[in-house]
Amino acid sequence: MTAKHFINGTWYAAAKGGEIDVINPANERVFATIAAGTAEDVDRAVAAAKTAGQGAWVRTTGRERAVVLRAIASGLEAEQQALAELEVRDNGKPLPEALGDISDTIYCFNLYATYAEELDAKQDQPIAVPDDRFKTTVKYVPAGVAGLIVPWNYPLLMAAWKVAPALAAGCTLVLKPSEFTSLTALELARICETAGVPPGVVNVVTGYGAEAGARLSTHPDVRKLAFTGSIPTGIAVATAAAREIKSVSLELGGKSPIVVFDDADLEQVIEWVMFGIFWNQGQVCSATSRLIVQSGIAGRLVERLAEEAKKITIGDGMDAGVLLGPLVSRPQYDKVMGYIEVGKREASLVSGGQRPAGFNAGYFVEPTIFTGVAPEARIWKEEIFGPVLAVASFKTEEEALALANNTEFGLAAAVMTSDLDRAARIADRFEAGVVWINCSQPNFLEPPWGGMKKSGVGRELGTWGLMNFLEPKQITRYLSPDPWGWYLKG
Ligand code: NAD
């Protein structure tokens, strides 16, 4: 398969002819290529989006856009199995998880169809002002050409979190997927076209971040940048946005804590801790990668987690019963293995820590647990983005909160306890944008999603996600026949 950019309703090879190999992380074999986009390709896509942004699409009502968004959802639904299988080959995740991602993607387009309809009712609503000679209303207008840059851990879903609200708002867009996982984003573009999205409204340019991504961030005609990825890239994107005074939202990394008290139900704790760090091979921005456990339960919990981690079936995501697939790429594998070596020097390894036996190819890493991790350890402070859990223990609630909040990140945090007053207290004091009580990771698309501190700027999902792509415009009318009098009366 040789995939091309999707620009203005047409498939284009890279302007400079470059291609990037697409590797199946389960066997390290090349099974496709994508276009290596450069500034020329991005410029062509932004020009198409700008032209489309002056056309009929921006003048559609929310109801009209909702019809298109629901048609995209139906198109995705018709191809759910094929899309999930493509995601497995591209990203490595187990098929049931990929199927879950595609259903969430479908849900996302249907949800933003509803929000698009609701937007019509919010248009031109009066705002009370303290002078009855004036009438002020607010109109929500599309923010213009949106540049969307997404990572590889949920390739299609992360794209949907931005494409669906951007379309609901009436924006035109250029999407730059990760160079490791671009294939389902290109399928989405095809499905959008079939669903009736006009040419130039949705464009996808593939390629490396330093070239295609960087040009999209700096392009003067891109008015809104929505980025999901790592902190260093987020800084580059925000800096580029600042130079052109673009609106920017950033969904960045995390090192989220899960605080477990002695009174929590042990079996529940095991389930959520395992899910919180090993789901999607630990490549989850909100993964609860720091377990902070009260000393009374710590020994028993770590022993049980180590037992359970050893039972996890590792393999090709296409094989039935597999719970842990390969990591996405060679660089990610090397990064995670590097952190495991650091961890062996900094803390005690109680489970995993190797490439699993019998796997000669593929980026597989055993589910790994370290205990006795000190707050200054790198594996405690830095985002590993792999199946590696760091455990520390505490005695008092204050100590637990201090450990939990002592981080530059602030994406998510979880607490496990049977004392609901305590849970509420802790939830209030967690410095995180997403808090879970007696669970870890469940995510709905209606509430806001995003981080405090260095985990991001702004919120996605829900109506907060829609507002990212709208400019509220105030329109104030003078109603009185009398002169206002500031100038005339002096
Ligand atoms: P990354 O920052 O390396 O890349 C993200 C995207 O940015 C890719 O499309 C990449 O090509 C592009 N990019 C790279 N350099 C660029 C540049 N100079 N200018 C513009 N674009 C550039 O991140 P990744 O490794 O793909 O993803 C993992 C990171 O994403 C983790 O830190 C994870 O926590 C984060 N993440 C956050 C959320 C969230 O909701 N907060 C969700 C998923 C992933």
Topology:
Blueprint: E1 5-7, E2 10-12, E3 19-24, E4 29-35, H1 39-52, H2 62-78, H3 80-91, H4 95-122, E5 125-127, E6 134-142, E7 145-149, H5 155-169, E8 172-176, H6 183-194, E9 202-204, H7 209-218, E10 224-228, H8 231-243, E11 247-251, E12 257-260, H9 266-278, E13 290-294, H10 295-311, H11 330-346, E14 348-351, E15 368-371, H12 378-381, E16 388-394, H13 397-405, E17 412-416, H14 420-429, E18 434-437, E19 456-457, H15 462-467, E20 470-478
Bound molecules: nicotinamide-adenine-dinucleotide.
Give a quick precis of the structure:
With 490 residues, this protein is an alpha/beta fold. 40% of the residues lie in helices and 20% in strands. The structure holds nicotinamide-adenine-dinucleotide (NAD).
Pairing-aware structural class of the strands and helices?
alpha/beta
Regarding quaternary structure, how should these chains be classified?
A: single chain
Number of strands: 20
Task: Give unreliable regions as ranges.
Answer: none
Domains, number: 2
- Spatial shape: globular
CATH class of the largest domain: Alpha Beta
Q: Note the beta-strand portion.
A: 15-25%
CATH topology of the largest domain: Aldehyde Dehydrogenase, Chain A, domain 1
The CATH architecture of the largest domain can be named as 3-Layer(aba) Sandwich
- Bound ligands, named by name, code or SMILES: nicotinamide-adenine-dinucleotide
Helix run count: 15
Classify the helix fraction into a percent range.
Answer: 40-55%
Radius of gyration: 24 Å
Main sheet: strand order: 14-15-16-13-12-17-18
